[in-house]
Amino acid sequence: MQLLDELRAEHERIDQMLDSFRTGVNRFLDEHDDPADLAHFIQFFRLFADQFHHSREEEILFDAMVNQVDLPGDHGPIMVMVDDHRQFKEKLDRIHQLIEKPSPTPADQVQLRLVTEEYIAGMQHHIDAENSVLFIEGGICLDDHGILELPSRDMSDEEKQVLDMSDQLLQLYPPTLDPEIIRGDGCFVCPAFEVTCDGFEREWPNHSRWSGLDDDPFSIW
Fold this sequence. Notes:
- The protein has about 220 residues and is mainly α.
- The chain has one domain (about 1-205): Four Helix Bundle (Hemerythrin (Met), subunit A), CATH 1.20.120.
- It is about 65% helix and about 0% strand.
- The protein contains six helices and no strands.
- Helix 2 (about 35-65) packs antiparallel against helix 3, helix 2 (about 35-65) crosses helix 5 (about 155-170) and helix 3 (about 75-100) runs antiparallel to helix 4.
- The longest helix has about 40 residues, at about 105-145.
- It is globular and about 55 Å long.
């Protein structure tokens, strides 16, 4: 499906920019760099990651999964992804407030580093969950219902501008990886697993490829 291919490709750029953002915030805090470029990162995440990318997930992909396939939107993987989007907006707003402070206190600096790391780790876990679970299993469900393509939309001029700007930011701020963040596939590495979501096999029992099995696929755990 072209829309899923587009969303996966966008994940790659967003993922790179998250690690680049870490570099930018670290330089700002450690070397007292000009915060102007951090504002450009904020623009990228607001306009490209949220306004363009997340909105198409919610308004096109998730809408089709709920209204055409009858997957639940008020619990399970879709609910988790939508709630993540809301939390990311709130964290980004908080980061922006801290960056804009004319004379940040030491406590502000600690908070900026903390919230930035929470935002980056949350977004990267979110990307992993969508790539390895929701896009794959949701795509199979859509295919089973004869839905082989979904519409998309072109980027606005503003969205194109921040995407172009991201090339420059990646050059100026080479991505810094955090070895403490565990990256991986499947429900077992999703922070929401068995907290707000029981995994797609249990949450989507009538649509899961596991639904015909007598044994619980999670019984070994």
